[in-house]
Write a structure and sequence with these properties.
The protein is built from no helices and eleven strands.
């Protein structure tokens, strides 16, 4: 069982930055792939970024070059550094854990989800 808690969201002006964190419980965190997803009002949840247990990363085209996912297995935490924010980045951001260890863009492949953290970007 893995419990995930996101933090770091907030209100920021366009062009600004935030660092989202996702703290995990559980003994086998290092073997999990971790992902970040987001959901804007009235829209479906969409993939943002993932990092596998090997450290391999993959990003959605919409965030490539602006967002960076990383993990610290000693702290059982995954991060999402979000830079050059745009109003269209406004959403609730969720982290998720995949026990198979391989990052994927498919939300139904993730076994555990956090409660989300709100990111609001003003123009």
């Amino acid at each position: 069982q893995v419990h995930l808690v996101e933090s770091g969201g907030g209100l920021v002006q366009a062009g600004g930055s935030l660092r989202l964190s996702c703290a995990a419980s559980g003994r086998t965190f290092s073997r999990y792939a971790m992902g970040w997803f987001r959901q804007a009002p009235g829209k479906e949840r969409e993939f943002v970024a993932t990092v596998g247990w090997t450290g391999h990363t993959y990003y959605a085209d919409s965030v490539k070059g602006r967002f960076t996912i990383s993990r610290d297995d000693a702290k059982k935490t995954v991060y999402l550094q979000v830079n050059s924010l745009k109003p269209e980045d406004t959403a609730v951001y969720y982290c998720a854990a995949n026990s198979k260890g391989i990052g994927t863009i498919l939300p139904d492949r993730y076994d555990y989800w956090g409660q989300g953290t709100q990111v609001t970007v003003s123009s």
